[in-house]
Every structure is written in C-alpha cells, then in structure tokens.
Design a protein that fits this description.
Blueprint (H helix, E strand, L loop, with lengths): L9 E5 L1 H4 L10 H14 L3 E5 L6 H6 L12 H24 L4 E3 L2 H4 E4 L2 E5 L2 H8 L3 E5 L1 E5 L3 E5 L1 H11 L4 E5 L24 H12 L6
Parallel strand pairs: 1-2, 1-9, 2-6, 3-6
Antiparallel strand pairs: 4-5, 7-8
Helix pairs in contact: 2-4, 7-8
The structure holds 3-methylbut-3-enyl trihydrogen diphosphate.
C-alpha cells in the first residue's frame, strides 16, 4: 500500500485467485466478487480496477504454450480461447459492479498496450483518461497483447496495475490476493520468499517486472 498522491485514483488489482477458484476451470468466486463490488461502491472513492485471469485463462494459456509467445499457428485458437475466457470472467465482474451502481467500463489491454519481450512498451490511454475524467470506472484484465519480439505475450494484471498507477498518478495501489502481504516471491511456492515491509512505487514496478515474466503466479 503506497501513498504518493492523495487525489489520484486507487488502483485495485484483484488477483485471479480472488475472482476465481483456481482449482477448477471457469469457476468464478461470485460471492466474493459481489462483496468487493459492494465495498467499492460504498467507499465513494475513484478506482481503476484490474483483475487477473485465474481459472478462466491460465489453464488454456498453458495448454497452448502461450507463455513463451508465438511459435506456430496452432497456438492462435488457444490465444482466442484464452482471451474469450478473460472476456467471460470480465462480464461477470462487470455485472456485479454495475449491479452496485458503479459505472464500470471494460478496456482491453490488447487494444491499448503493446509489449516488448513481455514488458509493456507503449500505451494508448487517451480514451480511458477521457472517460475516467467524467466519472467512468475502468476495468482492465491481465491480457495477451501484441509483442514486438515474441509476437504476443501474456501481460499480467500486476504489470498493468503498476503501469496504470504511474500513468494515472495513483494515490494508492492495492494488490488483492489470497496471500496476506507483499512478498519477494510466491510464499506458497518458495520458502525463501520474504515479506516486503515497506512498499513504494519502485518496489511495485520491480515486482511487476518479475511477475510479467512468469505465468506461474497466483
Ligand atoms: C493474465 O492475468 C491472464 C492470462 C492471460 C493468462 P494475470 O497473470 O494477472 O492473472 P492471475 O492473477 O495470475 O490469475
């Protein structure tokens, strides 16, 4: 949790393990999504929302070997299916947000971002900025975007949240996951993972760069 600009929006990243049950393909955690939507609505604050793909995206991306980028045409239907999964999950999240009266509008990272070797290199955020300025709440998911080196690459919600935080001068960045705290590694997989006690912009950006290169994250 950081505070650099009290007037900036809060960037809230909902990990795939928060919005989906990772144990079963295509299983949303609807009660939790609803609860989060209600909290956002009651807060009265400005948010930019980012979510992971969880069980709507990772299993398909893995099945088609999408993490390493474009290798052969047989991956393309997997690319399409992964992005379809993200859209399906996003529709469920939108439903909950809109039910709570939040004017949430989905923006696809593949339409506003390009990457280079898995790192975001260019962004076209003017449309999002304009709609945010009049009160819209943008909703973005981790995505597969065009990549100048790899053909395409998986860009995590963490990496997008970090980029949007910088671009929008975020007052706060919150990474919601099923782990308490921010760690150097995934504490469920790596015994050497250490809790980071003070988190600032550079920490978040550093974490996002490691996160972007791994599809194994929760
Ligand atoms: C990317 O989203 C999902 C894919 C395109 C594979 P994230 O990497 O942010 O998703 P979670 O939070 O780990 O599930």
């Amino acid at each position: 949790l950081i505070s650099t600009n009290e007037r900036g929006p809060t960037i809230l990243k909902l990990g795939g393990s928060v919005v989906t049950d990772k144990g079963e393909d295509f299983s949303p955690r609807l009660a939790l999504i609803e609860e989060i939507a209600a909290i956002i609505s009651r807060s009265g604050k400005r948010f930019i929302l980012v979510h992971g793909g969880g069980s709507f995206a990772h299993p398909i991306a893995a099945r088609y070997g999408l993490e390493k980028g474009y290798r052969d045409p047989s991956q393309l239907i997997g690319l399409a299916k992964t992005k379809q999964g993200l859209v399906r999950l996003q529709a469920l999240i939108l439903e909950a947000l809109i039910r709570e009266g939040i004017p949430a509008v989905a923006f696809m990272a593949s339409s506003f971002a390009r990457s280079e070797s898995g790192r975001i290199r260019s962004l076209f955020l003017e449309p999002m900025r304009s709609l945010f300025a009049i009160g819209v709440t943008p909703l973005v998911s981790g995505d597969i975007v065009a990549d100048s080196v790899l053909g395409f690459s998986v860009v995590s919600g963490d990496q997008l949240a970090s980029a949007l935080a910088i671009e929008f001068g975020a007052g706060k960045v919150i990474f919601g996951s099923d782990v308490n705290g921010v760690y150097t590694e995934d504490p469920k997989r790596d015994a050497k993972a250490q809790l980071i006690r003070t988190v600032d912009m550079s920490t978040i950006d550093g974490l996002a760069s490691t996160a972007g290169s791994s599809a194994q994250r929760t």
